[in-house]
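Slide 14.
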Amino acid sequence: MADWQLAQINIGTMVAPKGDPRVAEFYAALDAINAIADASPGFVWRLQDEAGNATDIKPTPDPNLLVNISVWADLESLSAFVYRSSHAGIMRQRRQWFVPFQGAFQALWWVPAGHRPDVMEGLARLWLLDRYGPSPQAFGFKTAVAPPEGASHG
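Slide 15: predicted structure.
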């Protein structure tokens, strides 16, 4: 097994609360999108609640903020899911469901194999990226860094 895996967080603020017709199509597609992720080569883990997704996890005072965290074997696997699976088609419609976001809404970072990041860790990585720009601690697809070499997991 590889020493490192790639974690990702993405967040978004819905244009309306769950149950509102304006976001019904998003929620209707969620199980199918999660199933695509779960079956994708290189998929390791994703944050989920009792319903099988993460939409009821509310880490901030904004009830319409959704958080998604997952872990992948490598950048190539995550990239294939995001840009070349059915996920890409459904997310082209994101502007009808999500408010334009000010600041970083996605961050990637390397984690020791087997680590499962929690929401606060993910939000901290977003903050690092937003505040300081890309670094080995938090980066994006276009600014990706290689996994650490020879470093201990501490």
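Speaker note: The chain has a mean pLDDT of 91.
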